[in-house]
Specification:
Helix content: 25-40%
Shape: globular
Structural class: alpha+beta
Number of helices: 12
Distance between the termini: 27 Å
Strand order of the largest sheet: 13-12-11-10-9-14-15
Largest sheet: 7 strands, antiparallel
């Protein structure tokens, strides 16, 4: 190899390493900025000195420097339980996740429109229309905008529209219906609704959920969020929670004020539900008590995510959103691999990695 190519290879490697460190640094700063704002809003008390020392000593023993205890403070203040092995969001998303999930694959597989191809053998909401990079699709065929509009205009059902790229936290997820070419969303015409979303969106028939799930909050599709961990010996459920929308809300997102409640291995809810802002509930606004409530057909939910995860092995950690339809069958809504939230799991169920904590923390260090 010539001296030129050797120097070029060395410089390229250094530039890529610098870029990698810069991305990690920016992620850490962004997550810390977010949690500091939540702590400020909630007036979250600090940890006791012994608790802070226990958390820092624990992570030091695992080869990590715990630069702050923001997340330990936050979780402890809401659920009243201190655990030294809570996994902070900045460590998970900036350090651990990039080691387990292929960052190079994230941009390619972020588009939620691809789910109908990736998971075609699993039950999903009926798609009415897709827009992929500006092209309109109906039944996997490119159609004109006129045909796309007419496809929506003739449907006499509740529909849901959402972006398929950068659609986190329920942003721009809206339920609407159409009458005489006009929607009931801000009185926009169907064409105006298309223009609002521009491109990369999907319109689906709104899922009619099971009666028991609907009783929790009828205005939103209440979903089970399951985080799984893919290993050579199979798929393991790290944590499972139920996300419940607030009264009148169309979404069940935790960041948008939704309630999260832990689910045990048998599909029963735990006795308390939590909001991001520190509210604690024992029942929903519709007076359904959490304790004793069982997710319909929960074992099938677990079987579904265990079957789907190996289809996208690029990601060893995946967060799945699963609904329960009117026939009490699980229905796949979406999967998340990019900036997965650990907050709702650890507030509701405790430390995220459970029995896998040591091997996950050690793997990241070994693969450096």
């Amino acid at each position: 190899m010539s001296l030129y190519h050797s120097i070029k290879q060395l410089l390229t490697k250094r530039i890529l390493n610098f870029r990698k460190r810069l991305v990690a640094f920016n992620l850490e700063m962004n997550f810390r900025k977010s949690i500091k704002e939540v702590i400020r809003q909630n007036n979250t008390p600090k940890l006791k000195p012994k608790q802070e020392q226990a958390a820092k000593s624990y992570f030091k023993s695992k080869g990590y420097k715990l630069k702050n205890t923001y997340w330990h403070c936050y979780y402890t203040s809401i659920n009243g339980e201190f655990h030294k092995n809570y996994i902070p969001d900045d460590i998970f998303n900036a350090i651990i996740s990039p080691k387990f999930n292929e960052m190079r694959q994230w941009p390619a597989l972020l588009d939620k429109n691809l789910s109908y191809n990736l998971f075609k053998d699993f039950k999903q909401p009926k798609r009415v229309l897709q827009n992929i990079n500006g092209f309109f699709y109906v039944d996997d065929k490119i159609v004109s905008e006129y045909v796309a509009l007419e496809t929506c205009n003739i449907i006499n059902k509740s529909l849901i529209i959402k972006p398929t790229i950068d659609s986190g936290d329920g942003n721009m997820v809206e339920i609407f219906s159409v009458k005489n070419h006009q929607t009931n969303f801000k009185n926009l015409k169907t064409s105006e609704l298309f223009n609002l979303y521009k491109k990369d969106f999907i319109i689906q028939e709104f899922v009619e959920q099971s009666a028991s799930m609907k009783s929790l909050n009828p205005s939103a599709l209440n979903t089970v969020r399951v985080m799984t961990y893919l290993k050579e010996d199979g798929v393991h459920v790290l944590s499972s929670v139920l996300r419940i929308g607030q009264t009148g809300s169309h979404t069940d997102n935790f960041c948008g004020g939704g309630i999260v409640c832990g689910i045990d291995n048998n599909g029963f809810l735990k006795n308390k539900g939590y909001t991001r802002f520190g509210d604690v509930f024992t029942k929903t606004a519709s007076n359904v008590v959490f304790e004793g409530f069982q997710i319909p057909n929960y074992s099938s939910v677990v079987q579904m995510v265990e079957a789907m995860h190996p289809m996208v092995p690029y990601f060893k950690f995946i967060s799945w959103d699963i609904g329960i339809n009117k026939d009490e069958l699980p229905i796949f809504i979406e999967y998340n691999t990019y900036y997965q939230s650990t907050d709702l799991h650890q507030i509701a169920n405790g430390p995220l990695f459970g029995e896998f904590t040591d091997e996950i923390l050690e793997f990241r260090l070994e693969s450096n």
